[in-house]
Amino acid sequence: MATYESEVPPQSSELSFVQTWSAPAAIVVACLAAAITVLTVTLPPVLDFPNHLTRIWLIGGGANAMRINTEETPSWGFGFGGAVLMDPALAELPMAAGTWKWGGVYGHRWYVDPVHRLTVAGFTNTAIEGMTGRFASDLTSEVYASFAPE
């Protein structure tokens, strides 16, 4: 049986101080840098995203600065952020003019009513029904029922 000598030079069993501590020191420095960044920078909460979109929209000039397409549906216009309610009476909705909304085919719907200072988000897993079905219309009806005088 033939034996082959390894071409790898023998290594010392003792590592230098720099070799021993360089990787852990780098990890500690990276963690400290991340911690300092997270603790010193104010980040908006993720669940407050529709309100942040509303603020961006208002800072940008609101409805006056938007180019809105109303060719297909005269009661709703389509522009930045989704659909914008132009004529609540024509749409037969309790929302105020300037309300903007959008929905997703997998069952979510949200809208922001700047007149009533209201943001509503509905999340379901009921494809189509949660976006344009009875759930969505009932949610809107119940929310705006709280604004009606008793």
User: Structural class, from secondary structure content?
Assistant: alpha+beta
Strand content: 15-25%
Task: Assign an overall shape.
Answer: elongated
Strand arrangement within the widest β-sheet reads 1-2-3-4-5
Q: Estimate percent helicity.
A: 25-40%
The string of secondary-structure elements, in order, is HHEEHEEEHH
- Number of E strands: 5
Polypeptide structure, described:
- By secondary structure, this protein is α+β, with helices and mostly antiparallel strands.
- The protein has a domain at 46-145.
- 37% of the residues lie in helices and 17% in strands.
- The chain contains five helices and five strands, in the order H-H-E-E-H-E-E-E-H-H.
- It has a five-stranded antiparallel β-sheet, sandwiched between helices.
- A hairpin with a 2-residue loop joins strand 1 (76-79) and strand 2 (82-85).
- The radius of gyration is 29 Å and the shape is elongated.
- The N and C termini lie far apart (100 Å).
Indicate the topology:
Elements (H helix, E strand, L loop, with lengths): L16 H24 L8 H11 L16 E4 L2 E4 L2 H4 L8 E5 L3 E6 L4 E6 L5 H4 L1 H12 L5
Antiparallel strand pairs: 1-2, 2-3, 3-4, 4-5
Give a brief outline of the structure:
By secondary structure, the chain is α+β, with helices and mostly antiparallel strands. The protein contains 5 helices and 5 strands; from the N terminus they run ααββαβββαα.
List keywords for this structure.
single chain, 150 residues, alpha+beta, five-stranded antiparallel beta sheet, 5 helices
